[in-house]
Design goal:
The chain is about 55% helix and about 10% strand. Strands 2-1-3-4 form a 4-stranded parallel beta sheet, sandwiched between helices. Strands 6-5-7-8 form a 4-stranded parallel beta sheet, sandwiched between helices. The N and C termini lie far apart (about 65 Å).
Length: about 325
């Protein structure tokens, strides 16, 4: 009898140990709506979780429609992270099994929102820190035994952001870009223009279905020409849409070059800091090209041929760089 009891106890202890090992080895599942949130989550969770991003890099979140399997993944994941204003959120089930982070979480944590515009709030480095802290706190709730690991990753991420902010200050000084005048295709890049200290003369498309009238376009062109705007910054995913069409139209009329910038990393493997650096450098390059062209000059074709070639070369270098990053993991 004692032998049988001892055997049962031994088997029970073995099963308990095996179950513990199994649970410890099982990774959390984190689902993020967009690449920037997924990138920050990866830096905090490290190897302790699998991160899935719903909207593919380089795609427009406004045109994304979740598949049934993605909706089920959102329902069953351990942590769901969204900005909280994505137009497709209503297509996900409300009865999620895990934790969810969204708009109220970011607001309560103290993120900075310019004029109530929720778009691209992660482009502010200090907001990225706040997002990372909120994610870390929730991962600790889900997985307390790895709290030190998450806290350490958070500290490392915050150090990277501090270094990024120092780098931005250096770029502003080195290229004397503070105060330079630009036009925005949409409000997407207001955070970066604010960070760089640029003077935004106007926003061409001020929101969904808010297209400027012909007379407003004429006013924008007049202002940009008189104030000698250096560049028009437009969203890459809107190149074939109204924003891109109007930006190109104004560029033709004024001679101000257009640069198309991605609002999220074009490669899901890019870190937050990498994305910010190549985005900022692309904008700085566009400003430099605009300076070379002499600001806004009616009909850029009247300028010397080599200036047009230089502008195209600078922009081509950045487009090639971005494409190389996009395909770096496939080689």
């Amino acid at each position: 009898m004692k032998l049988r009891l001892g055997m049962l106890i031994l088997i029970s202890l073995s099963l308990t140990a095996a179950l513990k090992i199994s649970c410890e080895g099982e990774k959390l599942t984190i689902v993020a709506t967009i690449a920037p949130l997924g990138s920050i989550a990866r830096e905090i969770c490290g190897e302790k979780a699998n991160v899935v991003v719903l909207v593919p890099s380089g795609s427009d979140p406004h045109q994304y429609a979740p598949k049934p399997m993605e909706a089920e993944l959102v329902r069953t994941c351990d942590l769901f992270i969204s900005i909280g204003k994505e137009p497709f959120l209503g297509q996900f089930p409300e009865n999620k099994l895990g934790l969810s982070l969204g708009w109220s979480d970011w607001i309560n944590a103290g993120v900075y929102i310019r004029r109530g515009n929720p778009h691209y709030l992660w482009m502010y480095p200090e907001n990225a820190k706040i997002i990372a802290r909120v994610i870390a706190n929730n991962l600790i709730l889900l997985n307390p035994e790895n709290s030190e690991y998450y806290s350490s990753n958070l500290a490392t991420f915050e150090e990277k952001i501090d270094s990024l902010e120092s780098w931005i200050s250096l770029i502003k000084t080195q290229y004397s870009i503070e105060g330079e005048k630009v036009l925005l295709g949409g409000a997407h890049f207001e955070p970066i223009t604010e960070i760089l200290g640029l003077n935004v003369l106007g926003i061409i498309v001020k929101g969904e279905e808010k297209l400027p009238s012909p007379s407003e376009i004429v006013e924008i062109e007049k202002l940009a020409s008189e104030e000698r705007a250096k560049v028009i910054i437009a969203l890459a995913t809107q190149k074939g849409g109204n924003e891109g069409r109007l930006a190109d139209q104004i560029s033709r009329e004024t001679g101000i070059p257009v640069i198309y910038v991605h609002g999220v990393a074009i490669d899901e493997g890019d870190t937050y800091v990498e994305f910010m650096k190549y985005t900022i450098l692309q904008i700085v390059s566009g400003i430099q090209a605009g300076r070379t062209a002499g600001g806004s000059s009616k009909s850029i074709s009247t300028r010397p041929y080599w200036i047009a070639i230089l502008i195209l070369a600078v922009l081509l270098i950045f487009q090639t760089f971005l494409l190389a990053r996009c395909f770096k993991w496939s080689s």
